[in-house]
Design brief:
392 residues; mainly alpha; 18 helices; 2 strands; 4% strand
């Protein structure tokens, strides 16, 4: 590598580090704004305490035992600030791992990081109680471990990611398939990685299995099956809320320009294969369970990997669209029942953006006083209330 190449690489690394640091510092004010806006906050803390009380009750099917325990311990030690800080650290680690993966393929990570870090939903997740970014960081950590030949560590990371967020199994599968497509000789090693993943992941669900009287009742979902039309409608409306209209238009333009190079990109790039398979998985799962916008965070990472490594100008346009969504949002429909819609009415209007709404809801919640005792009905009502405020 020439001196010029070395200097260019150092500059790119410094810019990426500055982006990660800026994203982290942007979340610092939220350390004084409570637990964040996730609806599962009260249930996660209750589940963690129930384990130490000797009567474990999972927070939601099928459970996320490692996170429930960690969240309760962190809350016991440092309250909401420490718990939010842990989410901020998970977000920073995820960005650093993402930058490392992109850099290994010879690309500048800055456009990729810009797409992810400028999404208001990334900020919401990184400053709230929630397992979303922990799971993402573990998947990216497992991918990095595979690339440096640490297959056992990769399996542990993948298994913990699944134990923390069960739907992550599709992201792990996407990475394994992406690797296998390129080199079939890796099959024995990938089978060993898969074996470790299965063992670690299964162990994470043992407490949930025991709490269900040693049955698999814990894997049932509370989400009712509705008509395909309703699911598609909710999926579309919530994707619009997550990405914003400008971002979606830019992505459509990028896709048609990039499409002719799809075949070569698929053949040449492990990250392209990983991103495409993973993106399809995330959106299909979200089509079946179109509820929280934060469930689309892995899709944000995959889109960033695809756009950010192929066309810099499109990547920054996408990042700009996401940043715009932070301050102003477009709604196109009003549901008959929030979060449980079976139909809706056309309701096109511009509203406060994701970030502005989220901060206002945190401040309103803080005005209610101290957080109620863990396990109380009041704590659950606070979680539901701030979530409803944020998603209205």
């Amino acid at each position: 590598m020439s001196a010029t190449d070395t200097t260019r690489t150092r500059v790119r690394t410094n810019r990426s580090a500055q982006m990660v640091l800026g994203s982290f510092l942007a979340g610092v004010p939220a350390l004084w704004w409570g637990y964040g806006t996730d609806i599962d906050t009260a249930n996660v803390l209750r589940a963690g305490r129930s384990f130490f009380d000797g009567d474990y009750q999972l927070s939601r099917p099928p459970g996320n035992f490692p996170y429930e325990i960690a969240a309760y311990v962190l809350d016991s030690v440092g309250g909401a600030p420490l718990l939010v800080l842990s989410s901020m650290v998970a977000a920073a680690v995820a960005l650093l791992l993402l930058a490392g993966l992109v850099r290994r393929e010879g690309h500048d990570p800055l456009p990729v990081l810009a797409v992810v870090a400028l999404s208001p939903w990334w900020w919401v997740a990184s400053t709230s109680t929630g397992d979303y970014l922990v799971a993402v960081a573990l998947v990216l950590g497992g991918a990095h471990a595979r690339l440096v030949g640490r297959s056992f560590i990769a399996g542990v990371c993948f298994g913990l990611a699944i134990g923390i967020r069960a739907s992550t199994v599709g992201l792990v599968g996407a990475w394994i398939l992406a690797e296998l497509w390129q080199n079939r000789s890796q099959l024995p090693m990938l089978l060993r990685v898969g074996g470790v993943t299965v063992v670690v992941g299964a162990l994470c669900f043992v407490p949930a299995w025991l709490s269900a009287d040693q049955s698999f009742a814990f894997v049932t979902t509370e989400t009712q099956v509705t008509s395909l039309t309703t699911l598609v409608g909710r999926w579309g409306v919530k994707n619009l809320a997550f990405w914003g209209p400008f971002t979606l238009l830019v992505l459509v333009a990028w896709f048609f320009q990039w499409l002719p190079s799809l075949r070569s990109a698929w053949a040449d790039s492990l990250l392209t294969r990983f991103s495409l398979i993973g993106l399809v998985w995330v959106e299909l799962v979200y089509l079946r369970f179109p509820w929280k916008p934060l469930h689309l965070l892995p899709a944000l990472v995959f889109v960033a990997l695809l756009v950010g490594r192929s066309e810099r100008r499109f990547a920054y346009a996408v990042a700009g669209g996401l940043a715009l969504n932070a301050v102003v949002a477009l709604t196109v429909a009003a549901p008959d029942v929030p979060h449980r819609a079976t139909t809706g009415d056309l309701d096109v209007q511009l509203r406060r953006g994701v970030l502005i709404t989220d901060i206002e809801c945190r401040l309103e919640d803080g005005a209610l006083g101290e957080w109620p005792p863990i396990g109380s009905d009041e704590a659950y009502d606070r979680s539901v209330g701030i979530f409803d405020c944020q998603t209205q």
